[in-house]
Amino acid sequence: MVNEAEFSSLSFHGGTDSHLYEYLGAHPGTAETGFLCSFRVWAPNAERVSLISDRTGWDSPQEMKNLGGGGIWETELFSNSSFSGVLYKYLILSRDGTLREKYDPFAFGTEFGGGRASVVSEPCYSWDDSGYIEYRRSVTERSEMTGYFYPAPLNIYEVHLGSFITKDGASTRDGTHYSDYRTLAPVLAGHVKRCGFTHVELLPVMEHPYDGSWGYQITGYFCPTSRFGKPEDFAYFVNYLHRAGIGVILDWVPAHFPKDGAGLSLFDGKPLFEYSGADMMENKGWGTLCFDVSKPEIRSFLISNALFWFREYHVDGLRADAVASMLYLDYDKKPGEWTPGKYGDNRNADAADFFRELNRAVFAEFPEALMIAEESTAWEGVTHPADTGGLGFNFKWNMGWANDMFEYVSTDPVYRSGIHSKLTFPLFYAFSENFILPVSHDEVVHGKRSLIDKMWGSYDEKFSMLRSFFLFMMTFPGKKLAFMGCEYAQFREWDYENQLEWFMKDYPRHGQMEKFVSDLNAVYLSQPSLWEIDFGWEGFEWLDAEGKNDNRAAYVRRSIDKDFVVAVFNFSAKKLVSYLLPVKCAGDYSVIISTDDIKYGGTGELLSETVLPCTDGLSLNMAPLSAALLKRRSKNFSINVREVN
């Protein structure tokens, strides 16, 4: 806890305080004759602020003292018993005479259910995840040693905890039947390890009042949601996954917050956390208010919050939601609803500066952090260093790749020759940013259909196509992300109120799909060619980019030490006979994995572990809608992929 003497008003009001939560909020301690708790809140426009709690009686407000011109109010409570678990709120009288009950923006805990109160709690957990922390640091060290960015596997399993599994398999529609963090940890870790993913990414676990927001409308930025347990239970969850060798990434929402009356909206009677102008205050499409990142105090709030999750809960990364909505002044607005920025265009320079400051602060303390932008436009330099004009993230979702691929796989193969560029065009910009290839929750909901149902064709053809899509995704340059349920081809769209349809794995095609994904992920992990050089041409070369008439494609992926694999695809509904690949490195090639293997539900035209001789090239027959990954069998070899064409 930071006391008044240690608190820097200059840092807070200058936008550089990254420890703000250590001063503001509720901080319990001990006194000579018992226990005390300090409460501080920022409400510069308030006429009066009082504390109400279950310790003093909800109908007995304790008036708080205004500490000066900075707008911070303070009071202390003394008691013979610990303050841990005490419920409290702030009662704020605005200058227009309106009285509002508000959550503490810096609370570390919240009351479960309908009580709508903050809870006195201090992040406290005995961590034993040092091995994983050392591993993630070693990746950064290896990047510096090799000169390649993130030369390590990154294969993310995106999860909504409320619908991964539920208590007794029941619906959470009535606000109950959630599984808890301690129950979820071993189940999720076991599944992730069996399927071969390296990280989980959690849809927001910060406290939020409305399940239907999926966590993206946050009221408690510093507290894990009470739906699944207490703060120490969430710490247990992260620690458990780390000990299982699994990284934890959190979705983080710096763009907007709900209009919830007890939350940040009009916190002290005037716009405080939100913009004040009608042209910037609200995202009408989402019905939310937008953080005013031009205010230094709001930058201190958000940067402190980002670092809080790294420091106090040991998370490995944050994926910043809706970055584009912050960067563009005209985002989801009609002409006349927005005002040009200080450079006369539609760009929000304050938001760009905020992201640079955020990423500088995070990487200064956690150089191994994963800072991921969900940025859906062509804004330049999202993953370029902040000091050279970039935004400073180290990863960006490649939503263009996802959109192109979804269009391609849903198109009848008869017409795929006309959109063959959907396969090849992403290589024109693949190395302009550090990309993650996302198959996210947003793509399997609201009528967009599940991933398996996006595939063209009959029942069996959909499964064949999905296996080939996965092989394309796992071999294409860029790190990977797939939403839960895709690994076993759940047909139903994602439903946040009900758990995944795990029973579907008992059906042959779905069980075979999960087996294929697990084997494919194991191949991914075992082949440095697929992840050491994800962000440069040294790791990729086309063998066949012009096969549009036959819906075919092939390329080489290469590792730092010149080891290589060959990925080949027949996206046609017809058999490909005697397909000759111009691979110039003679020798025998093994099929590492084939989507057409019988064990995955294929026809067996090309089996895994098949050996193919290569003299002037590789000749192979491929079943319809199939793909394979090949590797030269000899142990000692080198290849100049530039010569393979």
Polypeptide structure, described:
It is a single chain. The protein has 645 residues and is an alpha+beta fold. The protein folds into three domains: 9-119, Immunoglobulins (Immunoglobulin-like); 148-396, Glycosidases (TIM Barrel), CATH 3.20.20; 539-643, Golgi alpha-mannosidase II (Immunoglobulin-like), CATH 2.60.40.1180. 23% of the residues lie in helices and 24% in strands. It contains 13 helices and 31 strands. The strands form seven sheets. It has an eight-stranded parallel β-barrel. A hairpin with a 4-residue loop joins strand 17 (282-283) and strand 18 (288-290). Helix 4 (181-195) runs parallel beside helix 5, helix 6 (296-313) runs parallel beside helix 8 (349-365) and helix 12 (459-475) runs parallel beside helix 13. The termini are far apart. 49% of the residues are buried. The model is unreliable at 636-645 (pLDDT under 50).
Protein traits:
645 residues; alpha+beta; Immunoglobulin-like; TIM Barrel; 3 domains; eight-stranded parallel β-barrel; six-stranded antiparallel sheet; 31 strands
